[in-house]
Amino acid sequence: MLEAMKKIINPDVVINYDSAKKQLKLKEDGADSKVAELYIEHIPGNALAFTLDYQPQKDKQKFKQLSLYVNSTNDVGVNKGCDLIILWQDTKQKRALVFDLKSDKPKAQMTQKQLDNSELFLKYLLSMAAVHYRIDTDGIKIDKAIVTTNARNMRKRTTYQPNAETAQVGNYKIESVVANSSRTACVSLRKLISA
């Protein structure tokens, strides 16, 4: 599956990672972002990581939206893409993580739409692998998660518990991180996916 997906995915959107350290660095360029670099640890050695939020310096119009075939002014969320998708195969099953890095106050409903839309787009790409490369993509386990600097507003608890297990909202997990003075934070892939 991974080899077929590497042939399908535009190389410009692939995010390379340190396979020796099993660590991926996700950069966030937004001026209001509290996390400029998020390190995701425990990345499987055979993973493929890519973004659905590619914004090149030149030719911005080309990647203005997730698909040029969808109306860019549609405000329902059909053109929203996530920061990161990671695909890998563990010993038993094909896996994927649809992931986004959010600010202090993520809106649960819009986040749900963004993650769901990205999952649909991933399924479209996987269906191309199935048709064109005869790859069995049935049964792939897809997890969805976000990392935020303040999950307090999204958790359904009466009091904030910073050492509590990862929160669940809708069909995605929420993991809270604390950025250091250089606006860097770290999270384990294991906290973002189901066992």
Give your account of this protein's structure.
By secondary structure, the chain is an alpha/beta fold. 19% of the residues lie in helices and 25% in strands. It has one domain (2-192). The protein has 3 helices and 9 strands, in the order αβββββαββββα. The strands form 2 sheets. It has a 6-stranded mixed beta sheet with strand order 3-4-5-6-8-7, covered by helices on one side. Strand 5, helix 2 (108-133) and strand 6 form a beta-alpha-beta unit.
What level of helicity do the residues show?
A: 10-25%
- Outline type: globular
Helical run tally: 3
Number of strands: 9
Overall pLDDT level: 85
Strand content: 15-25%
Can you give keywords for this protein?
195 residues; 25% strand; globular; alpha/beta; 19% helix; 9 strands; 3 helices
